[in-house]
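Bumping with the actual sequence this time:
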Amino acid sequence: MPKNHIKEIKKAFRILLDNEYRNPFQIYVDGSFLKVADRLQNGTSIFLNLFPKQPNLFITKCEFKKYTNFKKSEKLGDLSGHVQIINCECENDSCHLNLFNIKKENKHHYIIASCSFSILKKCVSSNICTITFKNSIPILNVCNLRRKDFDKKGAFISRGELQRLENRFNK
């Protein structure tokens, strides 16, 4: 992987940690992402080595069923062994990730791993962090998240909070 991509990914992880994302990261994976990771030569090791600790990977039961139907002729990939299967509330087998009831607040700090353009578009519009593969290189999109500033004691404060404090004490 090129050095500039490694540097961008490390910067993105620092931004995520500054914005209260927990390590190990919680990642919802869909079938398209697993398919692409299986096609790559070292897709599993590339993906898992991005993270400081082993991430928690989740997939819905219907997405995993679609993935296994696709991979029936071949052996399942390595990454599918790291994924926890969760139940979903859909009536039929056409649950397309459902965004797992993740709202704009995203209070549990989930990251969506997908290679489907429609899902990535929904995630970007609702400001949810995503991971995808482009030209066999993992891309981590942190949307509108930014690094937080430090106060003199070293604790994190947001830009708005810093501005309010400056306005209060500069009067």
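The tokens above came from a reply further down the thread. The first helix runs from residue 3 to 18.
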